[in-house]
Amino acid sequence: MTARTILKMALAKGRLLEPSLALLRTSGAAVAEPATNRKLLVPSSDGSLSVLFVKPADVPVYVESGAADVGITGTDVLRETEADVLEPLALGFGRCRLVVASPTEVPYPALTGGVTPRVATKYPRLTRAFFAETGLGVQVIAVSGSVEVAPLLGLSHWIVDLVDTGRTLRENGLVERAQILDVGAVLVVNRASQKLRLEQHQQLLEQLRVADRSRATPGRRPGVSRP
Hints:
By secondary structure, the chain is of the alpha/beta class. The chain folds into two domains: about 5-95 and about 185-215, Periplasmic binding protein-like II (D-Maltodextrin-Binding Protein, domain 2, 3-Layer(aba) Sandwich); about 95-180, 3-Layer(aba) Sandwich (D-Maltodextrin-Binding Protein, domain 2). Helices cover about 30% and strands about 25% of the residues. Strand 7 (about 120), helix 4 (about 125-135) and strand 8 (about 140) form a beta-alpha-beta unit. Helix 1 (about 15-25) crosses helix 7.
């Protein structure tokens, strides 16, 4: 297989990286982690992929533009960016939810005295869309750091952020008020690349589908069916 035919895959640094690498290992396309390899593009062990590690918000951008043929990202990032990509496979990891939360003592869904609520979030588009649909007027404050501290510092009344177990919310005196989106990891594909290299994409998709199913079923090996 020549370098020209190798598919480029964008993986998100952060919470989805370890399970994404585990999925590739199970599929037979193991890739060295960024900390152990300084190459811009890291080849997979079977030679089928060339992997680049990028910020989570950049995965849909790379795939939509064609800089990467495929990528693994969260539906939170995908919906926020509104990237025009294919979503052929939902993966069985990275599951959490995007919610509205606030300190226990702060009213929801309206503040007293007609005050316009300030909402801190890393997801300004999704946040504006949610409150527009619910008919609540809010001021959205886009932040890139720890969202949970925004109410404690007086930056906002409410926040919109990802929640898994809810532990971080509780530790910061916050409670869930409303759910905006169910979130999970998905495989995304560039439309043009999929048309031009259909056979390669179909092969990769099947490998990842089998590997994902295998990881969800302890003791099962990829490619081994059960009666």
